[in-house]
Specification:
6-stranded parallel β-sheet; 17 strands; alpha/beta; 475 residues
């Protein structure tokens, strides 16, 4: 059974079982863990494992002094948020552009589409660059809200919550076992879901008070399917505030955040979704979104301003990459992802059948899992000296020396296509997420490095092209 069929079964199950009607404090708690259930069902994974992925980006050290100062300043600056348009962002969106840290997701929208706006910026608690933030006079930092989420105790009937969670788990277990033909592991799941429930329920009164006080006409945010965004969306609907979700990465046709149930739960969609191109507009419309709610803004991000392809192509490779280039005829960059390291390991097995001087493989590790993935691939590195692990180097620099890019469903594969490189998808269940690229003849499917090498050495890769990012519509 393919992923498309499984996704359709999941959507049907959601609607038939009225999962959004299970509420605590009048809020549908299923939205807090829906994405994990969806992926768990599609791939037959453990839900607890899926939940644990959320912590991948957590920082090891928190700048407590900055958190305290910004929490105190929050109350002095609160009135600044009373604007017609409220942007909800975070410090990790900011990148250095000509000496200023610009928000690559929202600053173009603010500068060219909005006249009256304020930014509520949540901190990546170990990273601060406030003195150089672009238009910092419009920013209010949300450190206090993070603290409040952790210290406000949710007022819930714990017994009722446990009963509801047990019903959802039991229901899901039966459904999961029907399609995966083995026992579903419920151990630890109840505890994990209760922890997630408590934290998110504690957010609700905080954001209700904040949005009732600020009351903008519209809120701009990204990742509308995330628990915090779902809370803000629900509260905003009650207060007649429009929600505009902006595209923040590649939207594939089976993306759990854009395959929301259609029939009964349209209240969980934003009022508008701003996308980069008609390519993405067609994907979400095919998933049941109202075509009038999907707006093509063009590429409003500043990703290309920072990672200009023409500039990167003129750069000389760093020493570590220069060595690889000089030693091999073809260079293949393999883009690693979390939780499926075994897929990449299997893909590389047949490298032993290829002469070393003919191929060099760059393993570009997941930026948040470098230590873990280095350990995982240790045996491969020991056996093959034409496989190289690259961690902190910008992936565009890897593209610059590569003849081919290989992966599963990473957004980096889209960037490689934009860069003009041939792309191969590893033939595995997870790569079905990018089936639309295969159907459009934009990429090829490959069962192993030996197969990719053969295609690379014999084929001119005359594939079609696609516009993923149209020109930004300034007005």
């Amino acid at each position: 059974m393919n992923l498309k069929e499984l996704s359709n079964f999941y959507l049907k199950w959601e609607n038939e079982n009225d999962l959004y009607n299970y509420k605590i404090n009048n809020f549908p708690i299923y939205v807090f863990f829906r994405m994990q259930f969806y992926h768990c069902f599609l791939f037959g994974n453990d839900v607890v494992e899926e939940l644990s992925k959320e912590g991948l980006g957590s920082v090891k050290k928190v700048n407590k002094k900055k958190v305290l100062i910004n929490s105190l300043l929050f109350f002095f600056n609160l009135k600044k948020l009373k604007k017609n348009n409220l942007i909800i962002s975070n410090t990790s969106n900011r990148k250095n552009v000509n000496g200023y840290y610009k928000d690559i997701m929202f600053d173009n929208i603010c500068d060219f589409k909005l006249k009256d706006y304020a930014i509520l910026e949540f901190p990546q608690l170990g990273t601060y660059h406030y003195n150089q933030s672009y238009k910092k006079e419009n920013i209010v930092y949300g450190d206090f809200l993070y603290l409040a989420e952790r210290f406000v105790k949710p007022k819930i009937n714990l017994k009722d919550a446990e009963v509801i969670i047990e019903i959802i788990i039991d229901n899901f277990a039966l459904f999961w076992e029907k399609y995966h033909s083995r026992k579903f592991d419920k151990s630890l799941l109840k505890t994990e879901l209760l922890l997630k429930l408590k934290r998110n329920i504690s957010r609700i009164p905080i954001y209700k008070k904040l949005l009732a006080y600020v009351k903008p006409k519209a809120i701009y945010l990204k990742a509308g399917y995330a628990p915090q965004s779902q809370i803000i969306t629900q509260i905003s609907k009650e207060l007649n505030i429009d929600i505009v979700e902006v595209q923040h990465g590649h939207i594939y046709s089976l993306h759990g955040g854009y395959t929301l149930p259609k029939e009964k739960n349209k209240g969980f969609f934003p009022n508008y979704l701003a996308v980069w191109s008609n390519y993405y507009k067609n994907i979400v419309i095919n998933n049941g979104w109202d075509k009038n709610s999907v707006k093509v803004f063009g590429d409003f991000t500043q990703i290309k301003d920072i990672n200009d392809i023409d500039v990167f192509k003129t750069l000389k490779p760093k020493d570590v990459l220069k060595k690889i280039v000089n030693n091999h005829k073809y260079i293949v960059t393999v883009v690693c992802q979390h939780s499926i390291e075994g897929v990449f390991s299997n893909f590389l097995k047949q490298i032993k059948t290829i002469e070393k001087r003919n191929i060099g493989v760059i393993l570009k590790l997941h930026p948040r899992l470098q230590e873990k993935q280095t350990l995982f691939f240790k045996h491969i590195l020991k056996d093959f000296d034409n496989i190289y692990v690259i961690g902190n180097t910008d992936i565009k620099e890897c593209f610059n020396v590569s003849n081919l890019v290989v992966g599963v469903y990473s957004t980096a594969l889209i960037e490689a296509l934009e860069y003009g490189l041939p792309v191969h998808l590893i033939d595995c269940k997870e790569s079905q997420f990018l089936d639309d690229l295969l159907k459009l003849n934009l990429v090829r499917l490959s069962g192993g490095i030996d197969e990719s090498y053969k295609i690379l050495s014999e084929d001119n890769h005359n594939l079609r092209t696609c516009v993923f990012r149209e020109k930004f519509n300034f007005f």
